[in-house]
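Students often ask what a holo structure prediction actually looks like on paper. The answer is less mysterious than it sounds. You provide the chain, you provide the ligand, and the output is a string of discrete structure tokens encoding the 3D arrangement of the protein together with fe (ii) ion.
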Amino acid sequence: MQAENRFRLTGVDCVRFAVEDIEAACRFAADWGLVPAISKDPALKVFTATDGSEVQVVKAAAGQPRCTPIGAPSGLAELTWGVADAAALQAIADELRKDRAAEFDAEGVLHSHDDLGIGLAFRVTRRRAVIYPVTRYNAPGQPGRLNARAPRYEAVRPHEISHIAIGVDDAGEAVKFYIERLDFIVSDRYANRGIFMRCAPVGNHHHVFFMNAKQPGTRFNHLAFKVRDIHEVIGGGQHLDALGWKTFAGPGRHLISSACFWYFVSPFGGSWEYAADEDMVGEDWETQDFDAVSHIFSEWTFGLEKSDGTLRGPISASKEQAL
Ligand SMILES: [Fe+2]
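The corresponding structure tokens follow.
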């Protein structure tokens, strides 16, 4: 395996959502901890995470390709992948143009689509490394944080977009374009149910997860943001909960990717996920095929209801009981 993707892909640079309720979507993004950015177009709302990962929000409008969510009234309109440099961008254009349109816009962003019709874009990454004090832990007999209190977070500040999950009819078919044309790598699989892929040999466990959906069709499932540690996952989740947003699942810890998570139902047609301490992988990572059994979703999740398939967090649930 080569050390770098042929196209020097760096990860998800931007996710563009088209939504029915743009006011609610923007409120959710701000409550989530993203920072509003300046947009030249008043109809385009832009939010950024610490490293420059970007979310764009537009009002859903049928007939306008970049304002049309795929498969649902609100959802994913375009997924932008970052690349290292302009030469890589041109190499992707040359590859895609073998069998489909791929056009540069005035800002040098390349627009195309995958085999399912998901709008794809590629740009020289606008994400940048941001250095911050990494949380240290005291383990028995091995104190890593001497004479210092543990971090507390008054406000959540997502560091970066980690990955996106997309529901499809056939995950095995959906991934072919990415593997065969863009050299994505399978990191892990749920047998016959979902495939975790990364866009570079070294880095995130997954940047995209294609999962067989309960409903037919292709649609946005969730978007994950990395936060600094589990304390920020919990703090962020409590903050969202206090503002009235509903838990989809969590807090909990995934078995696959090891991330501590908390998902919230969002106005974007799916959920958003805070995630901390996800597996980072390299060329020696061994791909596993996991049984698609119900408990594979997590090692543990507070409030997880397994009997009827609904997932509820304990804090939202207790608040409803109190009313
Ligand atoms: Fe996720």
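Residues 9-128+159-322 form a domain with the 2,3-Dihydroxybiphenyl 1,2-Dioxygenase; domain 1 fold (CATH 3.10.180.10).
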